[in-house]
Backbone:
């Protein structure tokens, strides 16, 4: 264990970062290029989700049948079923902020997986463009957070409500998603606040299938697949996703049976 500068933000961190962005004014993506900053709202701003208006679950398409995905030969290579990072940002890692743990913030051998949510309502995310805005919103919150800004978005992979899997922080770098426990730990986040939203069937199917793929790829046991709240004092990934993860890891569940 090392004394890390980067750590996964809790709900208070996200709220604080969102309010600061609200004061400064969120900028729209540049026309004709990849977006650098989103044009969306954070909790506490006008139009954002709150407890008084709990949205119903967004209808989603029937989950696709599982397919065999060729794994890359490169240890940290992107699987073919993952949308590349270049589709949502042209921003790189702020390497000066990477944790110095003897290997300049590099990941090393992957031996565990942790599942998260972003704690923001997912009811408006249907198109790829809407997912891109959310990715940029989360990254902006992470790289501008105070007192310790992250080097990049904290997660390695992000899954949207339609079941699309996005490459987030390059897997060759340690994430910033579980404070003090980012070594060798792949971070996967689902878009949504799963204390109130329910994961869509498409998102759950993508999550379970992707986790199983990575378990096989890196020889990870189902006992090393955790949720954030199982590793730290947090509500992440929300009670509804937590319930789904428990079922998937129990005997007969897809992750347990991998």
Residues:
């Amino acid at each position: 264990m090392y004394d890390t500068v980067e750590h996964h933000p809790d709900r208070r961190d996200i709220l604080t970062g969102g309010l600061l962005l609200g004061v400064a004014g969120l900028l729209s993506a540049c026309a004709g290029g990849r977006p650098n900053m989103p044009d969306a709202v954070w909790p506490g701003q006008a139009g954002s989700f709150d407890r008084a208006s709990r949205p119903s679950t967004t209808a989603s398409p029937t989950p696709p049948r599982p397919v065999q995905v060729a794994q890359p030969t490169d240890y940290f290579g992107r699987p073919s079923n993952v949308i590349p990072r270049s589709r949502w940002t042209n921003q790189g890692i702020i390497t000066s902020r990477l944790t110095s743990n003897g290997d300049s913030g590099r990941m090393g051998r992957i031996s565990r997986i942790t599942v998260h949510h972003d704690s923001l309502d997912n009811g408006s995310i249907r198109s790829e463009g809407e997912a891109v805005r959310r990715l940029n919103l989360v990254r902006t919150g992470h790289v501008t957070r105070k007192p310790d800004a992250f080097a990049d978005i904290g997660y390695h992979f992000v899954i949207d409500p339609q079941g699309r899997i996005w490459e987030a922080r390059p897997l060759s770098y340690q994430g910033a998603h579980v404070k003090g426990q980012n070594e060798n730990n792949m971070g996967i986040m689902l878009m949504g606040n799963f204390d109130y939203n329910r994961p869509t069937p498409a998102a759950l199917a993508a999550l379970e299938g992707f986790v199983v793929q990575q378990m096989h790829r890196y020889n990870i046991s189902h006992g090393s697949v955790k949720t954030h709240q199982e590793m730290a004092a947090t509500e992440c990934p929300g009670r509804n996703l937590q319930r789904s993860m428990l079922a998937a890891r129990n005997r007969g569940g897809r992750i347990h049976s991998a």
In short: Residues 1-5, 7-67 have pLDDT under 50 and may be disordered. The chain has one domain: 11-24+82-249.
